[in-house]
Design a protein that fits this description.
Cytochrome-c3 Hydrogenase, Chain A, domain 2, 401 residues, 16 helices, Rossmann fold
C-alpha cells in the first residue's frame, strides 16, 4: 500500500462502504463542532486527504496513553483508528521488532522529512546524560532530537510528555522533562507543539486532534500551555454532573457518608475539578460511559502541570497552599506598569477558570477586588493575592473594557 494514498482510496481498497464513510464524516463533524451545512465540504476534503505519516515515540511512561488511544470510539469506529493516518513506528503496536523496527523509523524520517507528525508519550530523562532510559542503545533524548528535526509538528501525549508527569515529581531523580521545556531550553528543535495532558488523556482528544489536522491541514486553537481549547478550554468543574450540588453547598464529607451515596459534590474530599482544564465531564471514558467524579472519586488534576506535587489528592483546595507562580511574585512597580502587572495577575490566576478575553467577565472591574477579598466564592479562597496585585488587576480589567 502506498503511503501517499488518499484516505478515500485507502478506505475503498479495504472494503469500507460509502455509508460507513458518511457515518464517519458525521461523527467527525459532531466531534469538531462543524455545522451540518459544512458536511459536504468535510466529506470532499476527507476523501481526498493524504494520510500523514506518523512516528510515535514512547519514553518514560506506563503505556496508558497508548491504551487510551486504542480505546477511542470517535471519530472513527475502532477498526479504522489506524487507517486515517499512516502509523509507521510505534513501540507497542508495530509488528516489526529489532533492526526492522528501527529501519522503519529511519525510512520515514528520510522519505518524509518535514512532513511527518511526531507523537511523544512519556517524559524524557536528562540526568546522567540521558542514561536512565535508552532504546536500541540510544538515549531517549538522542532519539527525540533526531526525530524532531524532520517533524512537521510534535504532539506530546499525556502529562509525562507535556509537563514531566509522575517521573518528574519531586525529587525527580532521573531529571525527567516534558517536550515543551526541552524545546524552550534548546535541547531539541523547536517545532509546532500540541500538548494533550492527562494521565492518560481522553481517547477522543488524541483521535480528534489527528482528525482536525487531517481535515483542515492545521491543528485546533490552543491555550497558553499549547492545549487544544476544544478539549481543555473549560475546567472539569464547569461541566461537572455534580456542579449543582456545589452551588447549593452540598458536599460529601467522607467517601462512605450519606452525601457520597447521594452523589453530592466531592470538593471537600479533594476534588481539583475547579482548577483542572479538561473535558472529562463532557466526553467521559469507555465510549461516554462515565468519568472519575461521576464514579465517586474526586478529580486529581492530572492534566495540569505539577499535579503530583500539589499538596495531596485528598486535601480540598481551601487547604492546599498555592504554589509560587513565578512572575506574579514581583511587586516592583518600576519593572512593570500597573496595567502590565495586572495582566500578569490575571494570566497567572484568573484565566484558568475565566475567559482569556476579559471583556467576557460579567463582574465590573471595580467590584473584583472586593469580591476576591470577601471569600464568598469558595474556589477563590485559595488565591493569595496582595492588595497591590488586586489594585493592578483592577487597572488592567478597566483598561480592557
Amino acid at each position: 500500500m502506498s503511503k501517499r494514498d488518499t484516505f478515500g482510496a485507502h478506505l475503498t481498497q479495504n472494503g469500507i462502504s460509502r455509508r460507513a464513510f458518511l457515518k464517519l464524516c458525521s461523527t467527525m463533524a459532531t466531534l469538531l463542532a462543524i455545522p451540518a451545512g459544512a458536511m459536504p465540504a468535510l466529506k470532499d476534503k476527507l476523501s481526498h486527504s493524504v494520510r500523514p505519516p506518523v512516528i510515535w515515540l514512547s519514553f518514560q511512561e506506563c503505556t496508558g496513553c497508548t491504551e487510551s488511544f486504542t480505546r477511542s470510539h470517535a471519530p472513527t469506529i475502532e477498526s479504522l483508528i489506524f487507517d486515517y493516518i499512516s502509523l509507521d513506528y510505534h513501540h507497542t503496536l508495530q509488528a516489526a521488532s529489532g533492526e526492522g523496527a528501527e529501519a522503519a523509523k529511519a525510512d520515514t524520517i528520510k522519505n518524509h522529512f518535514g512532513q511527518y507528525i511526531l507523537i511523544v508519550d512519556g517524559s524524557i530523562p536528562v540526568g546522567l546524560d540521558g542514561a536512565y532510559s535508552t532504546i536500541a542503545g540510544r538515549t531517549n533524548l538522542d532519539i527525540l532530537q533526531e526525530s524532531a528535526e524532520g517533524a512537521a509538528a510534535v504532539i506530546a501525549i499525556g502529562t509525562c510528555a507535556t509537563f514531566g508527569g509522575l517521573p518528574g515529581a519531586s525529587p525527580n531523580p532521573t531529571g525527567a522533562m516534558g517536550v515543551g521545556d526541552l524545546m524552550k531550553e534548546g535541547s531539541i528543535p523547536e517545532r509546532t507543539l500540541i500538548n494533550l495532558p492527562g494521565c492518560p488523556p481522553l481517547p477522543i482528544a488524541i483521535s480528534g486532534v489527528l482528525a482536525h489536522y487531517l481535515v483542515f491541514d492545521r491543528f485546533p486553537a490552543l491555550d497558553k500551555l499549547n492545549r487544544p481549547l476544544i478539549y481543555y478550554g473549560e475546567t472539569v468543574h464547569d461541566r461537572c454532573s455534580r456542579y449543582h450540588y456545589y452551588q447549593k453547598g452540598m458536599f460529601a464529607e467522607q467517601f462512605d457518608d450519606e452525601g457520597a451515596r447521594k452523589g453530592w459534590c466531592l470538593y471537600k474530599l479533594g476534588c481539583k475539578g475547579p482548577v483542572t482544564h479538561n473535558s472529562c465531564a463532557v466526553h467521559k471514558w469507555n465510549e461516554g460511559t462515565s468519568f472519575p467524579i461521576e464514579s465517586g472519586h474526586p478529580c486529581i488534576g492530572c492534566s495540569e502541570p505539577g499535579f503530583w506535587d500539589r499538596g495531596g489528592f485528598y486535601k480540598n483546595l481551601d487547604e492546599v497552599p498555592v504554589p509560587a507562580q513565578g512572575r506574579i511574585q514581583s511587586t516592583d512597580s518600576t519593572a512593570t506598569s500597573g496595567v502590565e502587572h495586572g495582566e500578569i495577575v490575571y494570566e497567572d490566576n484568573c484565566v484558568y477558570c475565566h475567559s482569556a478575553n476579559t471583556a467576557d467577565l460579567e463582574t465590573k472591574p471595580s467590584k473584583v477586588a472586593d469580591l476576591l477579598r470577601s471569600g464568598e466564592i469558595r474556589s477563590h479562597r485559595r488565591l493569595d493575592i496582595s492588595d497591590e496585585q488586586l489594585n493592578a488587576l483592577e487597572k488592567y480589567l478597566k483598561s480592557t473594557k
